[in-house]
Amino acid sequence: MAVLNEEQEMLRDMAREWAVNESPVTEFRKVRASGAPEAFDRNAWSTMGQMGWTGVIIPEEHGGSDFGFMSAGLVIEELGKTLTASPLLMSTIAATAIVLGGSDEQKAKWLPKLASGEAIATLAVDEGASHDPAKIETSVSGGKISGTKAFVHEAHGADLFVVAAKDGLYLVEKGDGVSLTTRKLTDQRSHADVTFDGATADKLTGGGDSLLDDVLDRARILTAAEMLGMAQQVFDVTLDYLKQRVQFNQVLASFQALQHRMADLFADLAQMRSAVEAGLQAVDSGFGVARAATIAKAEANRVLHTMSNQGIQLHGGIGMTDEYDVGFYLKRARVLEASFGSTGWLKHRFAKLGGY
Amino acid sequence: MATQLEAETRSDNDAFREEVRQFIADNFPAELKGKANALAGVDGPTDENAAQKAWREAMGAKGWGTPTWPKEYGGGGLDKKQARIIDEELARAGAYNPIGGMGVMMFGPTLLEYGNEAQKREHIPPICRGEIRWCQGYSEPNAGSDLANLQTFAEDKGDHYLVNGQKTWTSGGQWADKCFAIVRTDKSDKHHGISFMLIDMDSPGVEVRPIQMISGMSPFCETFFTDVKVPKENLVGEEGQGWTIGKRLLQHERTNISGGGRLAGMMGASLGDIAKKYCATDGDGELEDKVLRDKIADFEIRWNSFLLTARRAMEESKAAGGVSEISSVLKKIGTKMSQERSELLIDIRGLQGLGWEGDGFSTGELETVRAWLFGKATTIYGGSTEIQNNIIAKRVLGMLDHQ
């Protein structure tokens, strides 16, 4: 765990306490059981707004706390541990696009509402099943946007879409010309293909040519923060399980084969934490963000993939049951792994950044 | 907005940086620029030329080779920030710290913690000046990973101990002046029967035989002790406390083998850059061999995250005070990754990367082959990877022994 300042420690402790007490995995089970496509609890969301978590990366003059990405990452990590279903991750990413690229009017219109949680936003980039920002067909003509975005996270609850078109990023409000086709994924969260058919689109003109890349890098880092929380939790519950489960008249934790596997996972988790925290710090310092984001998401993909598989294997049969939580982490893990950069895509980008 | 205090501290640091820069300009011989520090390692001979000697003496007199050690024993008496400034300025000037070896990396910090006043006064200053080379008397033929199984016995003879036994894998033993050793003083208690003592390598009865390694080098030795007299004042700590002291030294060893940023410098250029010199690239400047390119990127991502982990461990241990419990993780990952890197270098260079000697191979290529072979030792010595896994599982994660 990075060395935190007092403000960050308080924020993390508050998020941890709330997640453990008010939003354990049983709350996710309720959301899942409701079957609502929105797939989150509005009451929990308004609590997040009251606690200021929706405005962590939004400047103070627009109603946020401007605590920075390290702080946002701490909250998202804690919520990841309990699989809290909410649009916090996506709305924070979308807010980033407005902070980086919005005009004064756009910021004044949207940021205060996003900071308070009154409005929810999301980011719509990919047009196929795999992340590939180089393949965008969506276009804007005369202020009207047309195209279909695939597998948009948290689309059902969104009031505002930050949409990547061929010539830049646009703000599109839900309503006329915006239609959703629900796509149920294994993580049971909100996903939809979103079709824009002549909807009014308001371009983000700031942020320069690299705006989309800059936003996506922040998306990668924050997504990795949720994955870090998930990996940490799988590790912790697995270790607890090995310490109490008895087989052959021994607790499983006493077997060297399992001890060494846990040591490997512990080392992997240490690497993942370093990479993710360094990514968050890179955004806050404004230095080396592209590289740090690539490392953070690639390490998050690698480690959570292994951790979620080992979590099942080390739990044995009980890990296969729906009654037991560990399987939920596996299902969410793969969805996040495929979002904003698969491992192969990230390695390609890392090599590109390194000039080979 | 910086506070008054921060601003003052910053200007103090600026003044110190200026002092370091001036010292390097005045004392670092230009002919040594860009050279590695062979003398601070454990595996090179001790011959030094006039320039190397002058540089070692200049840094040693300042205590800046061991910047954070107490001034009263010859260290620099500086804080970690100032130590970092020295590192940065040395790097900037293409200079190196000429003070090193096992005395600095392992023995000194341990003696500062466990030694008595007389021992510190005797042994620490020569380490700070780079005058003494220490070797490690730990492993024995039947006490490698099962270190506490050691048999070398020190018999109490009143004013001295009489030591008999054999140590092995004594790194740099043939060049060392002194040896810090763990020996058995009580045969009835595996762990509490061990003591930590200091042995002069030129004592009668000490015999050193270098061991030829698969890399062709002989940095390791077998060391035989036959009726070697060790004065009582050379016992560190209490009799029977050797296991505790010895383990602390191993923590310093692990941190130094793997992390601490040391490896970063040793690793040199990025594999991508090296590959572009040896392998074909396409019109976009990308390596044509996409499998190799993928392997390199995969390695470099994990390597970067290892360096970040070493940095994080340092920051966290600084904030918490003391050696990080993550040192076993760093040793385990760092050594494995340096082996992976050697294998990848051979992959990149093909047969050109497997030269043993003779024309047709650059010095760098030949050194890489030696490093590849020698590097296989890193996951064995300093506590094998399996031992690190045991330490992590039992001490860090609290997984229990069989009941």
From TrEMBL, chain A:
<keyword id="KW-0285">Flavoprotein</keyword>
<dbReference type="InterPro" id="IPR037069">
    <property type="entry name" value="AcylCoA_DH/ox_N_sf"/>
</dbReference>
<keyword id="KW-0274">FAD</keyword>
<dbReference type="GO" id="GO:0003995">
    <property type="term" value="F:acyl-CoA dehydrogenase activity"/>
</dbReference>
<dbReference type="InterPro" id="IPR009075">
    <property type="entry name" value="AcylCo_DH/oxidase_C"/>
</dbReference>
<protein>
    <submittedName>
        <fullName>Acyl-CoA/acyl-ACP dehydrogenase</fullName>
    </submittedName>
</protein>
<dbReference type="GO" id="GO:0050660">
    <property type="term" value="F:flavin adenine dinucleotide binding"/>
</dbReference>
<dbReference type="InterPro" id="IPR013786">
    <property type="entry name" value="AcylCoA_DH/ox_N"/>
</dbReference>
<keyword id="KW-0560">Oxidoreductase</keyword>
<dbReference type="Pfam" id="PF00441">
    <property type="entry name" value="Acyl-CoA_dh_1"/>
</dbReference>
<dbReference type="Pfam" id="PF02771">
    <property type="entry name" value="Acyl-CoA_dh_N"/>
</dbReference>
<dbReference type="InterPro" id="IPR009100">
    <property type="entry name" value="AcylCoA_DH/oxidase_NM_dom_sf"/>
</dbReference>
<dbReference type="InterPro" id="IPR046373">
    <property type="entry name" value="Acyl-CoA_Oxase/DH_mid-dom_sf"/>
</dbReference>
<dbReference type="InterPro" id="IPR036250">
    <property type="entry name" value="AcylCo_DH-like_C"/>
</dbReference>
<feature type="domain" description="Acyl-CoA dehydrogenase/oxidase C-terminal">
    <location>
        <begin position="214"/>
        <end position="345"/>
    </location>
</feature>
<feature type="domain" description="Acyl-CoA dehydrogenase/oxidase N-terminal">
    <location>
        <begin position="5"/>
        <end position="118"/>
    </location>
</feature>
<comment type="similarity">
    <text>Belongs to the acyl-CoA dehydrogenase family.</text>
</comment>
Automatic annotation (TrEMBL), chain B:
<feature type="domain" description="Acyl-CoA oxidase/dehydrogenase middle">
    <location>
        <begin position="135"/>
        <end position="228"/>
    </location>
</feature>
<protein>
    <submittedName>
        <fullName>Acyl-CoA dehydrogenase family protein</fullName>
    </submittedName>
</protein>
<dbReference type="Pfam" id="PF02771">
    <property type="entry name" value="Acyl-CoA_dh_N"/>
</dbReference>
<dbReference type="InterPro" id="IPR046373">
    <property type="entry name" value="Acyl-CoA_Oxase/DH_mid-dom_sf"/>
</dbReference>
<keyword id="KW-0560">Oxidoreductase</keyword>
<dbReference type="InterPro" id="IPR052161">
    <property type="entry name" value="Mycobact_Acyl-CoA_DH"/>
</dbReference>
<dbReference type="InterPro" id="IPR013786">
    <property type="entry name" value="AcylCoA_DH/ox_N"/>
</dbReference>
<dbReference type="InterPro" id="IPR009075">
    <property type="entry name" value="AcylCo_DH/oxidase_C"/>
</dbReference>
<dbReference type="InterPro" id="IPR036250">
    <property type="entry name" value="AcylCo_DH-like_C"/>
</dbReference>
<feature type="domain" description="Acyl-CoA dehydrogenase/oxidase N-terminal">
    <location>
        <begin position="12"/>
        <end position="131"/>
    </location>
</feature>
<dbReference type="InterPro" id="IPR037069">
    <property type="entry name" value="AcylCoA_DH/ox_N_sf"/>
</dbReference>
<comment type="similarity">
    <text>Belongs to the acyl-CoA dehydrogenase family.</text>
</comment>
<dbReference type="Pfam" id="PF02770">
    <property type="entry name" value="Acyl-CoA_dh_M"/>
</dbReference>
<dbReference type="InterPro" id="IPR009100">
    <property type="entry name" value="AcylCoA_DH/oxidase_NM_dom_sf"/>
</dbReference>
<dbReference type="Pfam" id="PF00441">
    <property type="entry name" value="Acyl-CoA_dh_1"/>
</dbReference>
<dbReference type="GO" id="GO:0050660">
    <property type="term" value="F:flavin adenine dinucleotide binding"/>
</dbReference>
<dbReference type="InterPro" id="IPR006091">
    <property type="entry name" value="Acyl-CoA_Oxase/DH_mid-dom"/>
</dbReference>
<keyword id="KW-0274">FAD</keyword>
<feature type="domain" description="Acyl-CoA dehydrogenase/oxidase C-terminal">
    <location>
        <begin position="240"/>
        <end position="397"/>
    </location>
</feature>
<dbReference type="GO" id="GO:0016627">
    <property type="term" value="F:oxidoreductase activity, acting on the CH-CH group of donors"/>
</dbReference>
<keyword id="KW-0285">Flavoprotein</keyword>
<dbReference type="GO" id="GO:0005886">
    <property type="term" value="C:plasma membrane"/>
</dbReference>
